[in-house]
Specification:
The chain is of the alpha/beta class and 370 residues long. The chain has 13 helices and seven strands. 36% of the residues lie in helices and 7% in strands. The chain is globular. The two termini are 24 Å apart. The structure holds 2-acetamido-2-deoxy-beta-D-glucopyranose (NAG) (2 copies). Belongs to the 'GDSL' lipolytic enzyme family.
């Protein structure tokens, strides 16, 4: 039963040889072990695809200070590692290579995420006159096509593929943020944007279902972070009305409510999938809870640079300036990114991502196989 692709893991983790494969899905107290991780999503998970496909549109992420904690710019939209990197480390796998990188071995996983992408595809946006506003069309559907194209290099027969993907971890998201925020920044109303949420959730759920039919049994579906706390949205969509801001955090209530609505529908969709596919484990990974905690009590987490102020940016109350994004002329970077929650007004710092990952990992110990 030991497949060729599985054996390197066995060699790396000799303890696994003591467990029969029927125990592969570990009793719940074990740290989960997988042969590979496949990740889909946007800039919260992208480890280089966005830079490979659209270096012209977003040259900043290919330059320092992006990557300053990592040691070099990689296309990650942060100073260092992302949640997906900490997950890979926790399960003993290499950091996921971007799926579009050449000369890579993807047998231990691939990251299909693309910075700036949407869950919904360009046909949806064309119908609404919004096709031109996005920096990339590499939607979740496109990323799934890339996965299908990669498949023959991972496994051949249906049985072999099911076996292989049954030992893989699939991380699907966060995705959907760009579907909401870019239309809002293009002056669509919140009421209109709210109507996109069920379509986004349906797309995520359909993608999960396709992966389950390919053999996936372990999926992580991260929810949305509280986007009302993003410096970019606080700066570009301000309200003259004080009541529109949460008193405790200073975040925009309506945008946080939009994220919560997305998360509520996502959890409902997960519930439906779980009852349809017994034996599959799908974890709702909470992005919202930990980030709102950071923002409410930053000192508790060592975030002394101010809750909503980006480490890297061109000034203003949130250190976000659309004329001088991080890594553009006129922007500066804080000395210690580990003391900031926000890296650049949208994305989090490595320090923040590092706090989020264990929460997702511990969700495994509570997850039941139905
Ligand atoms: C995405 O596709 C639309 C057509 O649906 C096109 O107008 C737009 O330029 C494309 N965007 C990119 C970045 O390729
Ligand atoms: C949105 O509205 C603002 C203010 O009215 C305007 O400056 C901006 O150009 C508009 N943006 C788009 C994409 O239409």
């Amino acid at each position: 039963m030991t497949s060729f692709f599985f054996s390197p893991l066995i060699m790396k983790l000799p303890v696994l040889t003591l467990l029969s494969l029927s125990c592969f899905h570990f009793s719940h107290s074990f740290t989960p072990r997988y042969n590979s991780i496949f990740s889909f999503g946007n800039s919260l998970a992208d480890t280089g695809n966005g830079l490979i496909t659209s270096a012209q549109q977003s040259p900043g992420i290919g330059r320092l200070p992006y990557g300053m904690t990592f040691g070099r710019p990689t296309g990650r939209c942060s100073d260092g590692r992302l949640v997906i990197d900490f997950i890979a480390e926790a399960v003993g796998l290499p950091l996921l290579p971007p799926s579009l990188a050449s000369d890579q071995d993807f047998r231990q996983g691939a990251n299909f995420a693309v910075a700036g992408c949407t869950a919904l595809d360009s046909a949806f946006w064309e119908q609404r006159g919004l096709a031109g506003i996005f920096g990339t069309n590499d939607s979740l559907g496109v990323q799934l096509q890339w996965f299908e194209q990669l498949k023959p290099s991972l496994c051949s027969t249906v049985r072999e593929c099911k076996d292989y993907f049954g030992k893989s971890l699939f991380v699907l998201g966060e995705i959907g943020g760009n579907d909401y925020h870019l239309p809002l920044l293009a002056n669509r109303t919140l009421e209109e944007v709210r109507t996109y949420v069920p379509y986004v959730i349906e797309t995520i759920s359909n993608t999960a279902e396709i992966l389950i039919n390919e053999g996936a049994v372990d999926l992580v579906l991260p929810g949305a972070p509280p986007s009302g706390c993003f410096g970019v949205l606080l700066t570009l969509l301000p309200s003259p009305n004080k009541q529109d801001y949460e008193p405790q955090t200073g975040c925009l209530k309506k945008l946080n409510a939009l994220a919560m609505y997305h998360n509520e529908l996502l959890r409902r969709a997960i519930g439906k999938l779980l009852s349809k596919y017994p034996g599959v484990r799908i974890i709702y990974a909470d992005y919202y809870g930990p980030v709102i905690q950071f923002v409410q009590t930053p000192e508790r987490f060592g975030f002394g640079n101010g809750a909503l102020i980006a480490c890297c940016g061109g000034g203003g109350p949130y250190n976000f300036n659309p004329q001088a994004w991080c890594a553009q002329p006129g922007a500066t970077v804080c000395e210690e990114p580990s003391k900031s929650i926000y890296w650049d007004g949208i994305h989090l710092t490595e320090a923040a991502y590092r706090y989020i990952a264990p929460g997702w990992l511990s969700a495994w110990s509570h997850a039941k196989v139905h």
